[in-house]
Write a structure and sequence with these properties.
The chain is an alpha/beta fold. It is 39% helix and 14% strand. It contains 13 helices and eleven strands. α2 links the parallel β1 and β2.
Length: 352
């Protein structure tokens, strides 16, 4: 899966364990802020029915691929298309001009092939799930040859070694649906999703500070939408990055937005993941969740995103700041029916 700030790659096993404790016989989970769908993919693999939601087009595409797609129905056809795309010669277009010449996110050789492959995908008459699998293959292949520290706020002054490798697509790790547990992808605003979807468990991992996922991954948004947007700044961001603002990126608005969602979701157990670098305190989130029943809070220390180790640089690539802390704390807040079971399990682990 793609490099992603805020990714739960190191915590995904714990999240699956929490869901399994909350619902021992399995069931359904809403992943309300699905992002890369890494968590939803792991829950689907563990036998849960997953409803993934995210309002960004690239995240919805990833959810269509990893959550809604059913591997036995789609893998063979997707493989044939991916094999065909790997044979296509490059042809310069929007990506080459915008992200290889106007900026330096990809080497021009790869940019030309991304252009040609993306144009070919658009001309094929594909089902939403099949198109999503193929687009995810292209995004992940481009991610493996980019020249960034992992986010698209800036690019490296000199080409990263991986940028010189030829882009190569491969089939994403798509899964079969669990028996009798449907999986689906949705592209709704968080409150609309909270008011619409219902499951045994709701997992919430909202943005928690000023860093916008759309701004950090604007190239993936453009590759999915393929709308050739106007851009601005050195990073050639989509102009709608200025307009599509999330209340979760606002210190003033985040509390009211999250509280509204927490109270609206129809589920038996709610699990909220939040970071100690976020705008809200532990006490604030506990108070919101207490309206839903008993609350258990677990904390896990883990390494910060890799970019923090590189330091702070100006637009010319010169280091201008020092590295801060390299570890942070992730809080898991569990409220509702599963809280007592999870609390009892934690006490047994401590006693052992």
């Amino acid at each position: 899966m793609i490099k992603y700030i805020g990714s739960k790659r190191l915590l995904v096993d714990q999240i699956v364990s929490l869901c399994s404790l909350a619902k021992p016989n399995g069931g359904s989970v809403i992943d309300l802020f699905s992002g890369t769908s890494r968590v939803g993919h792991a829950l689907k693999s563990a036998g849960f029915g997953v409803q993934a939601n995210d309002h960004n087009a690239y995240a919805h595409n990833l959810a269509l691929c990893y959550i809604q797609s059913d591997a036995p129905k789609i893998a063979e056809q997707a493989t044939k298309i991916i094999d065909e795309l790997n044979t296509i010669e490059g042809k310069p277009g929007y990506v080459t001009q915008t992200y290889c010449i106007n900026s330096r996110f990809f080497h021009p050789d790869n940019g030309q092939r991304i252009d040609a492959m993306r144009d070919r995908i658009e001309k094929l008459s594909l089902t939403p799930e099949l198109k999503a699998v193929v687009l995810t293959s292209l995004i992940e292949a481009a991610d493996r040859v980019d020249s960034t520290t992992g986010v698209q706020m800036a690019y490296l002054k000199a080409w990263a070694p991986r940028a010189h490798k030829p882009i190569s697509l491969r089939l994403p790790d798509i899964l079969a649906h669990p028996k009798d547990r449907p999986c689906s992808a949705h592209q709704l605003d968080a409150i609309a999703a909270a008011q619409t979807l219902r499951a045994d468990i709701a997992y919430l991992d909202p943005p928690y500070n000023q860093h916008s996922y759309l701004g950090n991954y604007h190239i993936w948004e453009t590759l999915v939408r393929w709308d050739h947007p106007e851009t601005y700044g050195i990073a050639c961001k989509r102009v709608d990055c200025r307009e599509r603002k999330s209340p979760y990126n606002s210190k003033v608005k985040i509390a009211a937005a999250l509280d509204e969602v927490i109270q609206a979701v129809d589920c038996d157990t709610m699990i909220v993941s939040f970071n100690d670098e976020g705008y809200l305190t532990r006490d604030q989130i506990e108070e919101m969740l207490s309206k839903r029943g008993p609350v258990v809070v677990l904390d896990r220390e883990h390494p910060r995103y890799v970019g923090c180790k590189i330091g702070i640089h100006n637009q010319q690539g010169k280091r201008v700041g020092k590295v801060g802390k390299v570890r942070n704390t992730e809080y898991f807040f569990i409220a509702g029916a599963g809280a007592h079971r999870i609390a009892a399990e934690e006490l047994e682990l401590v006693a052992a």
